[in-house]
Fold Pyridine nucleotide-disulfide oxidoreductase.
Amino acid sequence: MSYDCAIIGGGPAGLNAALVLGRARRKVIVFDDNQPRNGVTHASHGFITRDGVTPAEFRRMAYEEVLRYPSVTRQSFQVTDVCRAGNEFLIATENGGSVTARKVLIATGLREIMPDIPGLSEHYGRSLFNCPYCDGWELRDQPLIVVSGQPGVFHMTKILYNWSKDLIVATGGADVLTMEQRELLESRNIRIIEQPVAAFIGSGGKLRQVEFADGTHFERTGGFVAPRLQPKADFQAQLGYEVTESGGIAANEMGKSSVPGIYAAGDASYVMPSQLIYAAAQGSKAAMSINMELTEEEFAYR
């Protein structure tokens, strides 16, 4: 079966794109394996009219709206391959099926690679998070820890200082802070610990203590951990699109990649900041660009 556009990914970017294209009367298929990165989170924030909504409820409402349009369909299978087939693209899925589409929007988001620290998985999404804008308000004025061996740790700590003045930064010994940055943090009474975190201790998802490799313990009730981020799906070998330094698909403001007919939106493209409202806006812009390109092609054929 052939479609105007195949959307790979059922997050806010892909679903908002499906909504716009459905309203433009385009024949669209959304591939969604129902494995959202924010599924571990109990509430999503920063999206006007939906602040505090659970990820599951957000998806339910989104699909309720998107699937009202008869030209939009959904398949709950993972896409395994995308390749060019003449003037279209052939999209293959894990169940052995395939469809063709004139345009492809990749909106698969990111995969988190978390540090291997005992207790992290039990607390992640409950008292340990990765985005201050998403969960800083809920942890305001609490004793917090920032765990990151990445260059962005200084920026994250400065941002988090808006929500809590009681901060510990754990770099795990990584050389990611300049002397000037260290002095600036310490001037705000922010302690920097080089020892690796040995364990997060608590119960019921509520953090109570952080243990370090040298045996020291610090009372903390929450914090932020920086995971490594990788594209959830990678079709670069098949399609040859350019990527950014952070690993996202290089795309212009309207979502066009370096490969004609291939678009990207949401975390799959810009990687950070990772926010629902950013991704949804990117999906909307990409959909408008896709519809315009389809329209121009159709008028050129006549």
The chain has a mean pLDDT of 92. The first strand starts at residue 2 and ends at 8.
